[in-house]
Specification:
1 helix, single chain, mainly beta, four-stranded mixed β-sheet, about 10% helix
Length: about 60
């Protein structure tokens, strides 16, 4: 979790996928890091009668 915001109505949660490669991946020339996608926003189940928006960033 990168950031959490609690406003008057919804909760906003920002999550980033960590760029984690194993030792084998570093030695494999066929694996190429392509960066991250744009944030995708998903409306999650209400938490204590508030909407929850999850903003996720993941590897391509």
């Amino acid at each position: 979790m990168v950031k959490f915001e609690k406003t008057d109505q919804p909760y906003d949660i920002w999550r980033d996928e960590k760029k984690k490669l194993s030792d084998e991946d570093f030695r494999n020339p066929n694996i190429v890091a392509r960066g991250y996608t744009d944030y995708v926003t998903v409306q999650d189940y209400p938490m204590r009668v508030r909407l929850v928006y999850m903003h996720m960033l993941k590897n391509k």
